[in-house]
Amino acid sequence: MVNTNKIILRSVLIGTYFMIISILIFLISSLFSYFNTGADRSAMLHTEVKKIDQYVPKVSWKDDGNEGRYVDPQTLSSIESDYLDAWYVKHIANKTNLKNGIDDFYTKSARKNLFNFIEHNKEENMSIESTTLAHNPDILFFSEDGQLVVLEDKNVIEYKKVIKDNKPVIETTETSDYKGVFLLEDGFWRIRHLVKEHTSEFDKTILPSLMNSSNIKGINYYPQATPWDMFGANFDLKIIKKDFKIIKKAGLNTIRIFVPYEDFGKAKVKESKLEKLEQVLDAADKRRLKVVVTLFDFYGNYDVLDWTLNHRHAEIIVSKFKDHKAILAWDVKNEPNLDFESRGKELVISWLEHLIILIKSIDKNHAVTIGWSNIKSAEILKNSLDFVSFHYYEDVHDFEKKYDNLKKVIPNKPIVLGEFGISSYSGAWKPFGSSEKIQAAYYKEMQKVLTKKNLSFISWTLYDFDTIPKEVVGMLPWRVNPQKEFGFINTNGVKKPAFDYISN
Fold first, then answer.
1. Residue 198: how many CB atoms within 10 A of its CB?
2. Is the dihedral of CA 274, 277, 283, 288 positive or negative?
3. Rg for the chain (alpha carbons), in Å?
4. Closest by alpha carbon to 263, among 254, 276, 280, 278?
5. How far does Cα 1 stand from its chain's mean position?
6. DSSP character at residue 19
7. How many CA atoms lie within 13 A of 280 on its CB side?
8. CB 287 within 8 A of CB 293
9. Percent of the chain residues past pLDDT 90, beyond the cut
10. Pairing of strands 327-334, 367-372
11. Which of 14, 267, 356, 493 has its CA 20 to 30 A from that of 409?
12. Do the beta carbons of residue 194 and residue 110 sit within 8 Å?
């Protein structure tokens, strides 16, 4: 019994000893962590700046050497990161009139001017929505102690929209030259001075692409089983190849496909998605089908601080496929005019205009267009586009007259009917709807006009669909059900009477 008590006592003492040691180790490590928090860069940030998700302008460093100390790649990367972060927090400050994050990227003296600017805008009930789309920095001097950098940044593309009393008053895009002094403080490259030395109006001149759009006979395409999700998990190249054979045999020469913005990865475009798109383009080329690639599907934000993300998205895709033989044209955005009311007409148009410039700077050989939702909007940006594309879902008997009126306004620019069609649905949710017979008559009449006017066309769409994503037309059954039956082929794979008029 005595031995048992001794064993228990010994165990308790040993256990107590280890507990005290553990507590001491914990306290020491906590103190060490506390006294070293100043070295934790992330903990010092007043705002979380994640450029890969928020701000990624085009940066092209000039590599011609510098005075003073050699700038190693790691230091250069750190300077670039902090420099862009400084711009980003400045954009946010201009928009919100708040000072968050400025302390992290500007020295005390530099903050003073920024804070005064913010206070002035508050008093005037004014804000600025801004971004930079391109930077061309060059380090001129790096001090021997590694604490100071002099930097020059030429041809910075800046977009600004001034808002006063909740109304836009000025919108401008400028090309500016800057010179700045940076100090290394607490692990940050903070801006000490940043002076605009020169500015000029941004050149929006766009050179046209030489493309013959007069013989487009096409169709908007989704696989029957995966509408609006062509490049998703159920991607099936065999089905796509089979469909391309049907399209070619029907006398068509062009397809229009859609690249969903978020699904493809936004600014960090997924390699797996690019591979699928390449497979589709290769399959189209083998059937001698040309492809109109519509970008930014399911995107509708247009926020100025999103623009750099949008540009990197377009840049990656266009750069990847600009030399592909199947490419006919880039369609910047499907029906952007539908966002005029919710996002602001001027903002949407500016967004489109800058993307047109970007795409054409990358690909000088292929056409750029916009798929306007109606004929009324077709005049917008007509001088910036290689051909005008509009959609028509109105009365077939009014089409010729409306097209003739458009041609008077745009006499020297190629025009393509980018979408048109009629549903064959007639049911509980639309008892006085259409039918397959009426659908066939519609296409027969439209093809007469298209032939008469020698007008290129891309009809909607090859298949009827079993399901329609709610993002397309919402969830109201009287909208969803008609949308399912616009195809030339029904869900059982049987050609509808309209198929006889799929081409002229």
1. 11
2. negative
3. 30
4. 276
5. 80
6. H
7. 28
8. no
9. 81
10. parallel
11. 356
12. yes
| Number of Cα atoms under 13 Å in the Cβ half of residue 421 | 27
Helix (H, G, I), strand (E, B) or coil at 8: helix
Q: Quick check: 378 and 418 in contact, CB under 8 A?
A: no
For the purposes of burial, counting CB atoms within 10 Å of the CB of 74, is it exposed (0-12), middle (13-18) or buried (19 or more)? exposed
User: pLDDT class for 5, splitting at 50, 70, 90?
Assistant: low
Q: What is the dihedral of CA 55, 61, 67, 70, to 10 degrees?
A: 80
DSSP assignment of 469-499 equals -HHHH-S-HHHHHHHTT--SB-TTSPBPGGG
Residue 98 is which amino acid?
A: L
Tokens describing residue 171: 């919108």
Residues paired with 124 in a beta bridge:
none
CATH number of the domain located at residue range(s) 217-501 in this protein: 3.20.20.80
- What secondary structure, in 3-state letters, does 362-401 show? HCCCCEEEEEECCCHHHHCCCCCCCCEEEEECCCHHHHHH
Q: Is 464 helix (H, G, I), strand (E, B) or coil?
A: coil
Token pair listed for 356 = 């047109």
Distance CA 342, CA 370 (A): 19
Q: How many Cα atoms are found within 13 Å in the side-chain-facing hemisphere of 91?
A: 27
From the list 210, 209, 193, 202, the residue with the least C-alpha distance to 152 is: 193
| Domain boundaries defined on the chain | 43-201, 217-501
3-state helix, strand, coil in the chain (%, to 5): 40, 25, 35
**Tens-digit pLDDT profile for residues 42-98:** 344 544 555 457 899 999 999 888 899 999 999 999 999 999 999 999 999 999 999
What CATH architecture does domain 43-201 belong to? Roll (3.10)
Strands 456-459, 415-420: parallel, antiparallel or unpaired by DSSP?
parallel
Cβ pair 76, 88 in contact under 8 A: no
Pair of tokens at residue 271: 């390699």
Q: Residue 107 — φ and ψ, nearest 5°?
A: -70, 170
Tokens of 150: 């002099």
Q: Find the DSSP H helices in 250-391.
A: 271-286, 307-321, 340-343, 345-362
Give residue 58's pLDDT. Answer: 96
Question: How is residue 365 written in tokens?
Answer: 């050989």
CA dist 340 and 358 (Å) reads 22
Q: At what angle do helices 307-321 and 345-362 cross, to 10 degrees?
A: 30
The token duo for 269 is 């475009």
Residue 366 — φ and ψ, nearest 5°?
A: -115, 150
Q: Which helix (H) or strand (E) holds 334?
A: strand 327-334
CA dihedral for 404, 406, 408, 411, sign (positive or negative): negative
* Model pLDDT for residues 130-164, shown as the tens digit of each residue: 999 999 999 999 999 999 999 999 999 999 999 99
Contact predicate 240/234, CB 8 Å: no
